[in-house]
Design goal:
The protein has 22 helices and 12 strands. With 467 residues, it is of the alpha/beta class. Among the domains are: 173 residues, 3-Layer(aba) Sandwich (Rossmann fold); 95 residues, GMP Synthetase, Chain A, domain 3 (2-Layer Sandwich). α1 crosses α4, α5 runs parallel beside α10 and α14 runs parallel beside α16. Keywords: Transferase.
């Protein structure tokens, strides 16, 4: 990746070499189109036996002359940060002497994983292949050659001496004005690549029963499955139980039916599982086990090859997720996670596909509102649902808009969570807490930190703080 403008420092070092040897070189001309190895540039001016000693001298004086004044190109740090943000590895492949390239990296605090110097043109292909590079960013036609020889996507920026016409003629795949454009390009490229992987995965599956809660992830998975397989090879299963808010049922059915797929609404009985009712930290394990124990035979009954859940790539690395373990033990597939699609990417793709769920707030099951250790019962779940409906109505009455809202059942008391920005307004509106209390709680408190997905897990980490 082209990160610095080496021309001023390169020219100053060449000039110092010219002054030492007394040989006048066309320094400006030599720096117009940097890229070729140093021996190519020096050989027109010196006998062949002098070239290597002069290269050694150039490398010796380069750190003091060229490294300190060299600045990063606009967008260089942001470009590297974009690679890191998407879980990628940055390999700096350059014709520069490796030690001097490392000095530049260190001086400018570039977040680079590997530095490989002294390679040029097609010779870069071996390094790119060794490190599994799928994208190579450069500014020279020979960078394009290296990328193409390695089977990597060639991205060219107009920060060097090559023109757009020259780079296109060399066969570059992408042309950017500067590295400032790279993060947005990479965002789109990664999403496109992962969507292609998702489609390929679903096509290989042949048919799927999607565990469809109506949330953004499962809705997107359902839409993607229909695109890949056609509605005749896809069905949506929305499990009806006490833990699914009644308000979620009709919108979920309407969305699935709009895609032309079969909608199945089996009953699940997680409340009959002792581990679920006990509501320890592994409650979600028993919930997901019940769901998959119901959906797996249902899929077979309808000649569907797989049960697929909407688990995304963020969920997989989120830490404590016993529900994912239960689904995995029962053979459920996770196409979104397998394709590397994050929650943000699911929303971005959903918006591009005009899915109404693209900005739907997170809506975990009602049991997630009950504090660990407090028994889950149909009464508690119904009370939480009533309280959340009442809180939203009270907020609307006083003109307070919130996106996310949770009523946490702490036993006899409740804690209300709303968007952090809305906390001061809710503090000044006592009718909101009164509405929650009227749903059946002895006392209600407003969480001053606002809504946090998975807030109940905080009580596991520090139970004394949340007594």
């Amino acid at each position: 990746m082209t990160l610095i403008d080496t021309r001023p420092g390169f020219a100053a070092t060449l000039q110092a070499l010219s002054d030492e040897t007394g040989v006048v070189m066309d320094v400006a001309g030599m720096c117009e189109n940097l890229g070729p190895p140093l021996d190519h540039l020096l050989s027109p001016y010196f006998p062949v036996e002098q070239v290597q000693p002069l290269i050694d001298r150039f490398r010796e004086i380069y750190p003091d002359i060229a490294v300190p004044p060299t600045l990063a190109l606009a967008g260089a740090h942001d470009a590297l940060a974009a690679v890191r943000r998407h879980g990628g590895t940055s390999v700096l492949v350059t014709g520069k002497f490796t030690r001097n390239a490392v000095l530049h990296v260190e001086a400018l605090a570039f977040d680079v994983d590997h530095v490989v110097g002294e390679v040029w043109g097609v010779g870069k292909a071996g390094v790119l292949t060794e490190h599994g590079a799928r994208v190579y960013v450069g500014d020279h036609v020979h960078d394009v050659e290296g990328a193409r020889a390695a089977g990597a996507l060639s991205v060219s920026v107009l920060s060097g001496g090559c023109t757009a016409e020259e780079l296109r003629a060399a066969g570059t795949d992408v042309l950017l004005e500067s590295l400032d454009e790279f993060p947005a390009w990479l965002e789109a490229h990664v999403l496109e690549t992962r969507l292609a992987a998702l489609e390929e995965d679903l096509r290989r599956r042949g048919s799927v029963l999607v565990a469809f809660s109506g949330g953004a992830d499962s809705a997107f998975l359902l839409a993607a499955a229909v695109r890949a397989l056609g509605p005749g090879h896809v069905a949506a299963a929305t499990a009806y139980s006490d833990s699914l808010p009644v308000a979620e049922r009709d919108p979920a059915r309407a969305f699935a039916e709009s895609l032309g797929v079969r909608v199945l609404t089996p009953r699940t009985h997680e409340m009959e599982r002792e581990g679920y009712r006990a509501n320890a930290a592994d409650r979600c394990y028993f919930c997901k086990a019940e769901l998959l124990d119901v959906l797996t035979p249902l899929a077979a009954e309808h000649s569907l090859a797989h049960v697929a859940t909407g688990t995304n790539a963020d969920d997989v690395v989120a830490g404590f997720r016993p529900g994912i373990r239960a689904a995995d033990e029962r053979g459920a597939v996770t196409p979104l996670a397998d394709a590397g699609l994050t929650k943000a990417q699911v929303r971005a793709a959903s918006r591009a596909w005009d899915l109404p769920t693209w900005d739907k707030p997170a809506a975990a099951c009602l049991s997630s509102r009950v504090a660990y250790g407090v028994e889950v019962t149909p009464h508690r779940l119904a009370r939480v649902e009533r309280a959340e409906v009442a809180a939203r109505a009270a907020l609307a009455d006083v003109g307070i808009e919130v996106r996310d809202l949770r009523v946490r059942d702490l036993g006899d008391a409740a804690r209300l969570e709303v968007d952090a920005a809305a906390v001061p307004a809710v503090e000044a509106a006592p009718d909101v807490l009164a509405a929650v209390r009227a749903a059946g709680f002895d006392a209600v408190e407003l969480d001053p930190r606002g809504f946090r997905s998975g807030a109940m897990n905080e009580r596991l980490a520090d139970p004394d703080r949340y007594r």
